[in-house]
UniProtKB/TrEMBL annotation:
Cofactor: pyridoxal 5'-phosphate
An annotated Gene Ontology molecular function: carbon-carbon lyase activity
Name used for this protein in its record: Tryptophanase
Family: Belongs to the beta-eliminating lyase family.
Matching InterPro entries: ArAA_b-elim_lyase/Thr_aldolase, Beta-eliminating_lyase, PyrdxlP-dep_Trfase, PyrdxlP-dep_Trfase_major, PyrdxlP-dep_Trfase_small
Matches recorded under SUPFAM superfamilies: PLP-dependent transferases
Domain Aromatic amino acid beta-eliminating lyase/threonine aldolase per the UniProt entry, residue ranges: 83-458
Tagged with keyword Lyase: yes
Domain of life the protein comes from: Bacteria
């Protein structure tokens, strides 16, 4: 009896000792973890209202995309699980913005909502004069009507489509002076939106200053993928333009995202606030147009802000003709209130850290999976190199469009083709123009999707990438419009 008791006592002691040892190891491990583990990325908002989205089956999606003539613009939003078609007007408003919607003053003239927006714009931009418009292209239409004549030249960094449209519509010409590094997707230049000062000076030397009403700096540069422009470059453009007596304007749709990149990447700005950086950038210009559907954090809106009173007076008449009276210009009072609040929020560091952090998080995941994308990733979108993801699909089969369709069928994600369909036909030969790159753009709506959605997108693309050898055919056109064909084109699979 005694002997047995002793044995079990020893056994118990050993057992207890093991537990103590084990607990100690766990304790040390945790201690190590506590010291070395960096807190992961997390959104700096929590969710107050939700919108249900339908997760369809592959079978349903194959049927829907066929019914849509293999054009993703023809899909109903209810047929899309994650919609990355654009970041324009697709974001979520905050509780404070919705509060402003109730405070909207709908008086025809001199509403308090107008005053609120004007004061916010003045404090963020430093420009005294202000005109609201219903969106970005409307601001372009109003201001360019006052500024651009036939035969004029407008240099800048890759002008946005509507901007170029409004320039060319007036029989003027946009000249792209972006640095060459912007067009190499593997070049890690931190400011791929920069203007090449030599190219710009060449324009200034070639044309008389009367023919150049302004130089346009787009921040961030949308056409090159949300790539930022450095403060140093903005300042240098100002100095060069001063030398030739030329005005500098901003197309400022993503000015806050640009300021974030300056803070993070450019020497000397780490300790400045986003509002200080944005204001310094605007101080080197004479005015701006903006689509508030981006960094204004609203679903619809835009405005013009100017330093020169005379130009503002000239633009006023066009605002009244095209948009509405000068104290609402195409926006209701509640929309102006929500925009004023949105501008305050989008120029907060924490908001931008979440916003751009999310795009970077997706970029890192894709790189981890070996999927070729434009580097460094821009502020609002990821560009996937479709020629590398689908190496066996011939160029004539619209490779980026094929990738967009495959990704939709695979995961219900809607991106947009930036490739041969968009590049359209040569006006003379009527043959397809093949651009240097075939890209699939995945644009991220603001404050709309979560990190789980990012993981889902990355896996959707990875699955396609893993099957890349098997995908060997694409699509052919069955009908197309004479201009801007990509919006309405009808396609069918190549047999
Ligand atoms: C979106 C955008 C525009 C046009 O604005 P809309 O609100 O869509 O009319 C102009 N310039 C840039 C850089 C843009 O991103």
């Amino acid at each position: 009896m005694h002997g047995r008791k002793n044995v079990s006592a020893i056994h118990v002691n050993k057992h207890v000792y093991n537990i103590i040892e084990y607990t100690f190891i766990i304790f040390v491990e945790n201690l190590k973890k506590n010291i070395s583990m960096k807190l992961p990325f997390a959104e700096t908002f929590r969710i107050k209202t939700v919108e249900q989205i339908y997760q369809s089956t592959r079978e349903e999606r194959e049927r829907w995309i066929e019914q849509a003539d293999y054009n993703l613009f023809n899909l109903k939003s209810s047929q899309v699980f994650i919609d990355l078609l654009t970041d324009s007007g697709t974001g979520s408003m905050s509780d404070k913005q919705w509060g402003e919607m109730m405070l909207g003053d709908e008086s025809y003239a001199g509403s308090s909502s107008f005053e609120k927006l004007k004061e916010t714009v003045q404090s963020i931009t430093g420009y005294e004069h202000f005109l609201p418009t219903h969106q970005g292209r409307a601001a372009e239409n109003v201001l360019f009507s006052a500024l651009i004549k036939k035969g004029d030249i407008i240099p800048g960094n890759s002008h946005f489509d509507t901007t170029k449209g409004h320039i060319e519509f007036r029989d003027a010409k946009a000249i792209d002076c972006t640095i060459d590094e912007a067009f190499d997707i593997d070049n890690l230049h931190p400011f791929k939106g920069n203007i090449d000062l030599e190219k710009l000076e060449e324009v200034y030397k070639t044309y008389p200053k009367e023919k150049i009403p302004f130089c346009l700096i787009t921040i961030t540069c949308n056409s090159s993928g949300g790539q930022p422009v450095s403060m140093e470059n903005i300042k240098a453009v100002r100095e060069l333009s001063n030398k030739y007596g030329i005005r500098v304007l901003f197309d400022a749709a993503r000015f806050a995202e640009n300021a974030y990149f300056v803070k993070i990447r450019e020497e000397g700005f780490a300790d400045q606030s986003i509002k200080e950086i944005a204001k310094e950038a605007f101080s080197y210009g004479d005015g701006m147009t903006i689509s508030a559907k981006k960094d204004g954090l609203v679903n619809m809106g835009g405005f013009i802000a100017l330093r020169e009173e005379e130009l503002w007076r000239k633009a006023m008449s066009f605002c009244i003709m095209y948009e509405g009276y000068v104290t609402y210009g195409g926006m209701s009072g509640r929309d102006m209130g929500a925009l004023a609040q949105g501008l305050k929020e989008s120029t907060e560091f924490d908001y931008l850290k979440t916003r751009i952090g999310q795009v970077e998080y997706l970029g890192e995941k894709l790189k981890e999976y070996g999927i070729p994308i434009q580097k460094p990733v821009g502020g609002h979108a990821i560009f996937v190199d479709a020629l590398a993801v689908l190496p066996n699909v011939p160029r004539e089969h619209y490779v980026a469009q094929t990738l967009a369709i495959e990704l939709y069928k695979e995961a219900g994600i809607r991106g947009v083709e930036i490739g041969t369909l968009l590049a359209d036909r040569d006006p003379e030969t009527r043959k397809d123009r093949f651009p240097k790159l075939e890209l699939l753009r995945l644009a991220m709506p603001r404050r709309t999707y979560t990190q789980n959605h990012m993981d889902y997108i990355a896996v959707g693309l990875k699955n396609l990438y893993d099957r890349r050898e098997e995908i060997t055919t694409g699509y052919e056109i069955s009908w197309e419009a004479d201009i801007l064909r990509h919006f309405t084109v009808k396609l069918k699979p190549v047999e």
